[in-house]
Amino acid sequence: MSSMYSKGGKRLLDIFISCIVILVCIPILLLAVIGIKIDSKGPIFYTQKRVGKDLVPFQILKLRSMTNVARKVGKSPIIGTSQGVTVFGYYLRRFKIDELPQIINVLVGDLSIVGPRPSIFEQLEDMTEEEKTRYSVRPGLTGLAQVSGNIYIPWKERYKKDLNYIAHVSFKNDVIILLRTILVIIIGERRFVNRPITFKK
After folding, report:
1. Nearest-10 Cα torsion for 142, 144, 147, 149
2. What is the DSSP secondary-structure string of 95-123?
3. What's the predicted TM-score (pTM) here?
4. pLDDT tens by residue, 132-170
């Protein structure tokens, strides 16, 4: 792990990028809020307890993309037009707009721009002790698993990607993930199932 970058530079970059994104994305967020209110009844935002760095819980913030009906939190990913996803919510999820409020989580230090995605606590039951080391770093808005197939690859494969990322944290690798993230948003996650990234020394 690049010590200088991981000890301070990464956090400074998170703050810098999150401030810029907040300013640039205000119009998108306003349009999203209007769309949510028109499309279905319920709150604009959705919060959920997630596992943070060193297994410390935090509340992740999202734009609501599903109907405002109580449902059991599951371990399976919600894909496409899964039951409960609203019409407008589908597009929020497809283009990752529902994740934009998590920039606030980045700003306050719950998340990093790049890192393993924060899981729900129920998933800890299915993880080995080695896989749990993914929580030794701050979780991220996007990560190596997210640009290598994400919901279209098994959890165990995602955890391997997370551990590979942790072993090779650097500014260069974060930039690679961020650039790939832009492509994922544009053309979709499925296109990258057979084009995974693996970092090597």
Report:
1. -120
2. TTGGGTTHHHHHHHTS-EEESPPPPPGGG
3. 0.86
4. 999 999 999 999 999 999 999 999 999 999 999 999 999
Residue 60 dihedral angles phi and psi, to the nearest 5°: -85, 145
Which amino acid, residue 113?
Answer: I
Task: Quickly count: other Cβ atoms within 10 Å of residue 130's Cβ.
Answer: 10
Q: At what angle do helices 26-39 and 87-94 cross, to 10 degrees?
A: 150
Residue 106 sits at the vertex; the CA angle it makes with 133 and 66, to the nearest 5 degrees, is 90
Per the structure block, which two tokens stand in for 47?
Answer: 């919060």
The answer to whether the CB of 144 falls within 8 A of the CB of 161 is yes
pLDDT digits (tens, 9 = 90+) for 60-70: 999 998 886 65
Tokens of 76: 């399976």
Say how far apart CA 47 and CA 67 lie, in whole Å.
Answer: 14
8, two tokens: 């301070």
Of the chain, the end-to-end C-alpha distance in Å amounts to 10
Tokens 């509340």 correspond to 59
- Beta bridge partners, 47, equal 61
Please answer whether residues 169 and 87 qualify as being in contact, where contact means their C-beta atoms are separated by less than 8 angstroms: no
Query: Which residues are CB-contacts of 12 (< 8 A; sequence separation ≥ 6)?
Result: none
